[in-house]
Amino acid sequence: KRFTIKNPDFIKNTLVKTGAIVLSLVLMVLMIFNLPIIAYNKEGKPIEHISIMTFIKRWQPLVNVEGELEPNSMSNLNINSEIVNDDFTDGLDLDQIIEGQFSVLVLGFDESSGNSDVNWVFQFDIAAAKLNVLQIPRDTCLPYYTTSFTGKFNSIYSMGDSEKTPIQRVVNAVQDNFGIPIDAYITTNCYDIVDMVDLIGGIPISLDERIVYEADKIIPAGDTVLNGQQAEWFVRYRHGFSEGDIGRVKNQRKFLAAAMQRLLNIIEEDGKMTFYGYLKEIYENQYILTNLSLESITKLADLAATISLDNVQVNMVPGEGAWYYPQGHDRQSIWSVHKQATIDMLNKYYRPYQHDMTLPESAIIEIVTDYVTNSYDNTSDTLQELQDGAVPGQSKTEAPTEAAT
Length: 405
Known about the structure:
Layout: H1 8-34, E1 38-40, E2 48-50, H2 52-58, E3 101-109, E4 116-125, E5 130-135, H3 156-159, H4 166-178, E6 184-189, H5 190-199, E7 203-207, E8 211-214, E9 217-219, E10 222-226, H6 228-236, H7 245-270, H8 272-284, E11 289-290, H9 294-305, E12 312-316, E13 319-324, E14 332-337, H10 339-349, E15 381-382, H11 383-387
Parallel strand pairs: 3-6, 5-12
Antiparallel strand pairs: 1-2, 3-4, 4-5, 6-11, 7-10, 8-9, 12-15, 13-14
């Protein structure tokens, strides 16, 4: 049986009116979401009125565990006003201490979640489209920043200044000793590496020798794709290196180069939306803890995707292995920092918009002053060199410089 529409014009007009009402409601909601109706007050910053949409973008759900960082506590940023003047902008809207750069402290913890065995500073030179990565060996001796008798950097988080949050203790140590203002942090555990690497389908890498993490935990030599569990073994492996932990620090550079190449390949082959999907899942599953919002992470990821591996420079804090003799305890194997070489390296790579730092401006204490070796005073690599097969941290050291006054 056929049905006849008696008044098609009436139905048409009704649909048009209904559509107009729905569209008007949607526009009203969007207007409300974008009106500056929320008084937003981040610690250390003036109150500003922002929209609901902006508030959602700035939401930091992962900050609750580690906490927010204190406003910049560096006594003298010594910004180069000839570069960073009133008209200077890096074009990236981030909450940063120095316009032109953004520095993120990255800590990777062992099973105890107390000792930071991976200690990196990622400094984005936004204006120059470069990334400089500083590796701080876990055994770096900074005895005035920890109550641990070992004096080691990796104990600062759990045994530093009791009046500060654990993450702030490490931030202060980095700023006081290495002169790098820290804008944000990311922390993760060794077992979270497993999930993140599996999420993106593994990390292709080429190994000169097989790695025997334990008797039944072996990564074969040659071209391979590390799964999550193998990636954890790789970044933690050190017992087979004659240099011990320094060998591990160098080996982690190969992983960093391979991981960044993998992420660039994902963007090129699968598109940015797939890449953003991975970031969102990492964020929502709390594989990391950070004071960065998802919006800020996305902005930094977008920037990183434009940086070639040639423009990613990795350095390790210069120094040498030594013995430290804490009162009332057995001697400790530590990494004694070479202060002048460290300051020279920091001035060259990590202070693009600051005047050079001098010896008195750094809190570094040299445990060994009569050096046995300076072969680790320049271990700089680009990620492209590492991808091309360079030996990580191959010394480029020249004659030691004279101490600054």
